[in-house]
Amino acid sequence: MTHTYNVTGMTCSGCQAKVQSLLSKVTGVSKVSIDLSTGDTTIDMDKHISTPVLKEALNEYPKYQLSEKIIQPPTPAVSQPVEESKSWLQTYKPILLIFGYITAISLLTEWVQGGFIWMRWMNHFMAGFFFFFSFFKLLNLKGFAESYSMYDIVAKRWNGWGYVYAFTELALGVAFLTGFNPILTNLVTFVVMAVSIIGVLQSVLNKRKIKCACLGDVFNLPMSTITIIEDALMIGMSGIMLLTML
């Protein structure tokens, strides 16, 4: 059975993730979907759960208030302009621009140095990748950590991993840029990104409608195959460089 409620007090995707997590822990709840813009919360239940029980799950965070949604009677149809949904290009334009910038800067660096060397280019590309993406995580570190805990297999068990992960990306950016211990740097990258992609794959394959923890707050990007490609690209590059060096 499915019931709809309204939750107030949520101001960002981190709040959304926290409320989803708390309500999902209630016995009998199988799925929680939240529309952050309206506060509408749809809960799938294995059996009927009373509203006070759901409210009790949020007691630890008084700013989140749950109430039953009042269904308004239908009103006569009025001609309204239809809001066009975003195209694929409009939705993912920010991330395409980011990858375009990283690619252009890394290629320009190769040109300035007088020749194109694949290994050097990949180092510069990966440095740019980790600098860009750690920057967006650090804009709202708490929000990222809470959103990340919704799907990452490590962050689900330890919420602190989201904080560590953001700074790990920053450190990897510095390591790739400076050439610090290439074998260790690429090995850490391979392991960290391989673990990260597991939760992303699970979310996308299960068609969970959640925002990308990295860029969702800034650009309202959904979790999708683009996120898988990001992680897979870093895994592939680090794997190639490891095979070349070992």
Model description:
With 246 residues, this protein is α+β, with helices and mostly antiparallel strands. It has two domains: 67 residues, Alpha-Beta Plaits (2-Layer Sandwich); 158 residues, no CATH class. 57% of the residues lie in helices and 9% in strands. The chain contains nine helices and four strands. It has a four-stranded antiparallel beta sheet with strand order 2-3-1-4. A hairpin with a 5-residue loop joins strand 2 and strand 3. Helix 6 packs across helix 7. The chain starts with a strand and ends with a helix. The model has no long low-confidence stretch (mean pLDDT 84).
Short characterization:
By secondary structure, the chain is an alpha+beta fold. The chain has nine helices and four strands, in the order βαββαβααααααα. It has two domains: 2-68, Alpha-Beta Plaits; 88-245, no CATH class.
Give the arrangement of secondary structure elements.
Layout: E1 2-8, H1 13-24, E2 29-34, E3 40-45, H2 51-56, E4 65-68, H3 88-112, H4 118-139, H5 141-148, H6 161-178, H7 182-205, H8 216-219, H9 225-245
Antiparallel strand pairs: 1-3, 1-4, 2-3
Helix pairs in contact: 1-5, 3-4, 4-6, 5-6, 6-7, 7-9
Question: In DSSP terms, counting alpha (H) and pi (I) runs of 4 or more, how many helices?
Answer: 9
Secondary-structure element series: EHEEHEHHHHHHH
Q: Helical percent range? A: 55-70%
Low-pLDDT sequence parts: none
